[in-house]
Sequence to fold (420 residues):
Amino acid sequence: MKKIVITNEEEVPLPSGAVSLPTGSIFDLIPPKQPAPVQLEPRALAFLREHFPTAEEKEWTNWKWQLSNSITTAEKLGRIVDLTDEELRAVSGEGGVLPLRITPHYASLLAKSDPDQPLRRSVIPVTAEHQRCFGEAEDPLHEEHDSPVSGLVHRYPDRVLFLATGFCSTYCRYCTRSRMVGDANRMHQFSTKIWDEAIGYIERTPTIRDVLISGGDPLTMPDAKIEYLLSRIRKIEHVEIIRIGTKVPAVLPQRITPKLVNILKRYHPLLLSVHFTHPDELTPEVAQACTRLADAGIPLGSQTVLLKGINDDVPTMTALFHKLLKVRVRPYYLYQCDPIVGSGHFRTTVEKGLEIIRGLRGHTSGYAVPQFVVDAPGGGGKIPLLPDYWQGRDTDYVYVKNYEDKTYRYPNIQQAVAPS
Ligand code: SF4
Fold:
């Protein structure tokens, strides 16, 4: 197959304060750097040809084209995958909380005839979403309760969660904030007036040193809005770090343009928490997006939700975390799935999460082992859990088990013993 070479580079303006080289300098002799060409993956090209025959290859690499051509109806989805009766009823029927939305990029990764494919299960609804199981709630983490002003959650003393938007380019069926994202009834507002009130709260709360911008997905917003928000928060002296929570690099990697990266890096220290679910998400386009971000000095950490039949086994998680490290994303959190309404078919036991951590720790690099946490229902916050490495203690020793299940003892220093 003939490979088509295209570019998705955009002209990047100099950041304010940057110094232009004087004309007539030796640098004039150096030819301007040509943007690196990007090759459309054969998979993406074949998908484009089949499902968007009138679109050009360069449109595929445009994130706005990806958004405006996202799959939002049963009819469009049915042309891409063979929908089961159950999927068809869930996609066409009333009663689901989250709308359907899948970018063409992500849709190109879905298995046409395998309804159990992990990626497919994570974005195509089934009727089980409409069932409420034991312990489930619309807002199990009590975020609304810990919201001093609209659009802001202040649970921990020194940091806040800033809910910037209710929009995502692709809706994950297990979304913790399904009560507010893709909100067809517009129950939650995300206007700049609401933002200003949230920013005002941060300004007058000097204990806040860390702002996590999330939503919805903040990187689906236009560049100007992202820059407005970052610049407002960066002006607050007591805010030390800004974090952005996003799934965009995994579902809409085309959004990570040089122009966006150039904006983000003006607001360092800025960190990105990137949501990944499965190793099959790590395509060359995704690798390029992560590389761009990492090259801009943005520390990247991953967040993964433990999902039954999707990623709840050691080989899948090992592959995911190894692939993430290769694109410079540090596995950061593995979450026990939150008990939102309709999540029963996604949730597995806490013991399964511990089993996965046990299967990773010691068997691979420590950098590839995320922290396993339960976000405590009722607003208790993230609670880390570890397999039972701690075996007990006596007067002189603590007893600990290693990854091979062998017990060792460590001579514990006694408080009363003075150094010789
Ligand atoms: S990207 Fe995040 S906020 Fe959006 S649907 Fe997925 S989990 Fe929810």
The longest strand covers residues 300-306. The CA atoms of residues 27 and 376 lie 57 Å apart. Confidence is low (pLDDT under 50) at residues 1-28.
